[in-house]
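ok trying this again, last paste got cut off
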Amino acid sequence: IEDGVLLKYEGTDSVVVIPEEVEKIGERAFIGNKVITEVTMPDTIVSIGKDAFEECIKLKTVKFSEKLERIEKYDELVTEIESKKKQKKTGLWACLLCCLIKRIERC
């Protein structure tokens, strides 16, 4: 962790609780981790960097920060979801996760 950014997770726990001092999860911070199954973010996190959880094949549960504003790789998708959210009155992050799950299932 450097200047509030989690640059790289190198732990071996399957359940990860990110410390309160973290404000941003850096680009590729968890990439390729084959162990983690669950991640809990404190409400201090406002941004998730591009490909932060790419190829985390066992990751099933992510508890997002209430203050999360940005997931870098999906900015366009978030904008699209914002308009759908207004129509369906569904939470932004619930919509985003559904879109991501659908994208993963197509792979």
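PB: full thing came through this time. The longest strand covers residues 15-17.
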